[in-house]
Write a structure and sequence with these properties.
By secondary structure, this protein is an alpha+beta fold. The radius of gyration is 33 Å and the shape is elongated. Helix 10 packs parallel to helix 12 (313-329), helix 11 (296-307) packs antiparallel against helix 12 (313-329) and helix 14 packs antiparallel against helix 15 (366-381). The relative contact order is 0.09. It has 16 helices and nine strands. The chain folds into three domains: 34-270, Ribonuclease H-like superfamily/Ribonuclease H (Nucleotidyltransferase, domain 5); 272-321, no CATH class; 331-416. The strands form two sheets. The protein has a seven-stranded mixed sheet with strand order 1-2-7-6-5-8-9. Strands 3-4 form a two-stranded antiparallel sheet.
């Protein structure tokens, strides 16, 4: 018996059948290719083909309860983003982008297996979603993106400056390709969402903002973002694309929400006094925003409006404080003093200090300044503030009182000297 025959007999004894006629059974489940799960086509590009799903939305389409297409000028949005001054007609060259990736940490080991892109057209809004069936298709996917984004002037993302765009730039570089994002204006809406809704919303994730601000409720097809990388790796193992339908849905809603938020933000920044803005917290946020943009007149009007509305006690007094310092910047002393006196009645230590500084430096009334500083010290000693805050105010007020008392003593000495000379 040859060694082969011996080995064959041993394998048969173990239940292993050999022979050309024996078909090996695959341990994989039945394959469901992506084009049998999601409507789409395979686009031919320079590096091969890439799967792309497209949808078209009419110009009057509403995402949640807000229109998708902007109706107000976007000049203030451009100013905030330090971008070129674009007009509504330029929006057809804006790209709304969101990626679904193999991981959330970034780095060269992370790649985007699906990228959703949207852009406005004469008819409405065009959505394109490019999908990578396996990592070998990455050059084709990147080429497909570049083709879709041809003529792009600006890109709109949500946290894209920190994640999506650096990731895609890295992938273009690793593939030896030129990134289409070089020199393109970037509107990352996450920082603006934080500024506009930090007061009212506990969470400014895209999902929460779209629900609370746009009125969007995602359907049963939605999959949580944190599960997406694992779902894609399962797909690579099984070639069962059925779970990918939920990822396409998730990505499509993200893109639509980007466009909807962009349009709504344009409205808020162009019409901050609109009666449609009903939340006092939002009006306060807009006042802060315009103050940060050095639009003092706009900010002043919004602060005044906010203080006439129902605000929580903490927000009311915080807004009054911010408004008072805005008035100080304008040197509108009568209005600022009126607010500081109101705040002092509410035991706000900063107000006592500001009144002391005003009477010392503007009016040159040292006695009045001393009285305000002394009132602040008395107020501080009667309250139970955190130790670090008490210590800070003690140092500030003791320093101010000591300086005022030295100046008052010096002035009294000068007056006594003048009186003596006059008598002589």
């Amino acid at each position: 018996m040859t060694d082969w025959e011996s080995l064959s007999d041993q394998l048969k004894a173990l239940g292993v059948d050999l022979g050309k006629k024996k078909k090996l059974k695959s341990s994989r489940k039945a394959r469901y290719p992506i084009d049998s799960v999601v409507d789409g086509t395979f686009k031919e590009v320079i590096y091969g083909e890439v799967f792309c799903h497209e949808e078209h939305y009419q110009r009057d389409f509403r995402h949640g309860n807000k229109p998708l297409w902007p109706t107000e000028p976007i000049s203030m949005l451009c100013q905030w983003a330090n971008a070129e001054s674009y007009a509504i007609d330029d929006l057809q060259d804006f790209i709304f982008l969101d990626t679904e990736t193999s991981g959330l940490a970034g780095g060269t080991g992370t790649y985007a297996f699906e990228v959703g892109l949207g852009r406005f057209t004469d008819e409405g809004f065009k959505l394109g979603q490019f999908f990578m069936r396996h990592p070998g298709e990455e050059p084709a996917l990147l080429a497909g993106l570049s083709e879709f984004m041809d003529g792009m002037k600006a890109v709109v993302t949500y946290n894209g400056k920190s994640f999506d765009i650096p990731l895609l730039n890295t992938r273009y570089t690793l593939m030896g390709m030129t990134s289409p994002f070089d020199g393109v204006d970037h509107f990352d809406l996450l920082p603006l969402a934080r500024r506009l809704w930090r007061i009212r919303l506990e969470s400014r994730t895209l999902g929460n903002v779209e629900h609370q601000i746009l009125g969007v409720t995602r359907g049963e097809e939605e999959v949580p973002g944190y599960l997406i990388p694992e779902m894609y790796f399962d797909y690579l193992k099984t070639q069962d694309a059925r779970p990918m339908a939920g990822i396409f849905y998730h990505n499509a809603i993200d893109i639509l929400s980007l466009a909807g938020l962009f349009s709504h933000m344009a409205f808020l920044l162009h019409e901050p006094h609109s009666e449609k803005i009903q939340h006092g917290e939002d009006i306060v946020a807009l006042a802060r925003f315009f103050e940060s943009m050095d639009d003092i007149e706009q900010s002043q009007t919004l602060y005044q409006k906010a203080l006439s509305l129902e605000l929580s006690e903490d927000l009311y007094w915080d807004t009054l404080e911010r408004f008072s310092f805005l008035l100080k910047r304008k040197e509108d002393w009568p209005s600022a003093i009126a607010l500081w006196e109101m705040a002092a009645e509410n035991h706000a230590l900063y107000a006592y200090e500001e009144l002391a500084k005003y009477y010392e430096h503007r009016i040159k009334d040292l006695n009045a300044a001393h009285q305000w500083a002394l009132s602040a010290k008395d107020d501080l000693e009667s309250r139970h503030l955190p130790a670090y805050e008490t210590l800070k105010w003690q140092e500030v007020l003791d320093h101010r009182l000591a300086r005022l008392e030295r100046r008052m003593a010096k002035d009294q000495g000068s007056k006594a000297s003048d009186t003596g000379e006059n008598q002589a």
